[in-house]
Structure formats: structure tokens, C-alpha cells
Design brief:
By secondary structure, the chain is α+β, with helices and mostly antiparallel strands. It folds into 2 domains: about 60 residues; about 120 residues, no CATH class. It is about 40% helix and about 25% strand.
Length: about 200
């Protein structure tokens, strides 16, 4: 009986070893298949990267586009030379005046207003003005004369600087009309001074 058991033991253990080896081979084959499948799964992800980059590129375009240049134009600087309206106070009873300006327009500020009721008077007034101011003054005076036929146009070079007057005080005196600008209290600096001319129409007595 002992001899029969010893001879049977190897025969029982051999199939177990064979099954274990077969399981190892199957497991190795499965791992290799998973490894190959993992590579194939990585490839679609890699091919999707260009699409991600393409989808991101449109979002980069607006950020690279700067603000519109027309928006950078100073709002207070008229491009057509049209005069601006400023508030007027004072004993003359005038409530508003017109303001024309030009960079490096020349002239010397004076509080005394000059009557611009003739072409010769306009020519005398614009002597020393430049940078287009003579034409702007002449055009504005002509408009004032047409709009107020019963009034006389007056003009004064009120200031030269970097900012326009906020308002003007027009007073009637013995020598004529006196124009005093109300200038802003600031330390704004500019590369070139601006000449400001105030024009208004005073009713005839």
C-alpha cells in the first residue's frame, strides 16, 4: 500500500503544475493585450489635443486684439474745428459764449474784448494768431452775425495753456466788455500750449 501511494503522488501533482503554468501564460497574454489596448487608448487622446488647441485659439484672438483706436481720441478735441459752448456770467447779461482753440495758436491773453463788426476788425484781431485760428475765428464771427443780426460779435484771447476755461465772466465796463476766464485748478502739463479764444454776441443798445 505504501508503494502505491508514492507512485500516485507525482501523477497528481503534475497536472496541477501544468494548470498553473497555463494560467500564468493566459495572464501574461491578457496583460500584453491590455498594454496594447492602453496604447491605442492613448492615441485618440493624443489626436484630440490639436482640436483642444484649435478650440483655444479663437479665445486668444479677442484678447490679442487691442482696443479700437477711435476710442483713444480725446473727446474734448473737436476734429472739424467746431467751436465749443461755455457758460457765461457777469453784468453784461450774456449767458453763453463760444470757444475756439488751437495748439500753438499764438496770441497774447487779454481780458479786453474787441468788437468784430467788420472784416477789417476781424483781420486786426487775428494778427498774431496761427495754426488755423484766424480761419476759425472768422467763420465763427460770421455765424454769430447771421444768427444775431441785432447784436455785435466780440472776441478775446482769454488764455494759453493745457486746459480750456470752464466758464467765463463777461462784464460791461467803461472801456468795453471785460472777459475773465474761470480756469481749472490743476497741474496738467502738455507738450505745447493751446490758445483759447472766446467769441460772443452782445445785443446792440
Amino acid at each position: 500500500m505504501q508503494t502505491s501511494w508514492s507512485t500516485l503522488a507525482p501523477s497528481v501533482s503534475r497536472p496541477r503544475a501544468g494548470r498553473a503554468g497555463l494560467a500564468v501564460l493566459v495572464l501574461a497574454g491578457g496583460l500584453s493585450a491590455c498594454a496594447s489596448g492602453g496604447d491605442s487608448a492613448t492615441d485618440p487622446y493624443a489626436t484630440s489635443r490639436p482640436s483642444d488647441t484649435a478650440s483655444g485659439s479663437p479665445s486668444e484672438t479677442p484678447s490679442e486684439t487691442p482696443g479700437e483706436t477711435p476710442g483713444e481720441t480725446p473727446p474734448g478735441e473737436p476734429s472739424d474745428g467746431a467751436p465749443a459752448t461755455v457758460r457765461a456770467v457777469g453784468s453784461a447779461g450774456i449767458t453763453e459764449a463760444l470757444l475756439v482753440d488751437a495748439t500753438e495758436g499764438g496770441g497774447s491773453p487779454s481780458t479786453l474784448a474787441f468788437a468784430l463788426d467788420t472784416d477789417q476788425a476781424v483781420d486786426d484781431f487775428v494778427v498774431g494768431l496761427q495754426a488755423g485760428l484766424p480761419d476759425e475765428v472768422a467763420s465763427t464771427v460770421a455765424d454769430l452775425a447771421d444768427q444775431s443780426p441785432d447784436a455785435t460779435p466780440y472776441g478775446a484771447v482769454v488764455s494759453t495753456g493745457c486746459e480750456p476755461p470752464r466758464s467765463v465772466a463777461i462784464d460791461a465796463g467803461e472801456a468795453g466788455f471785460e472777459v475773465v476766464p474761470v480756469l481749472p485748478k490743476s497741474t496738467v502739463q502738455c507738450l505745447a500750449p493751446v490758445t483759447y479764444v472766446v467769441l460772443f454776441a452782445a445785443p446792440d443798445a
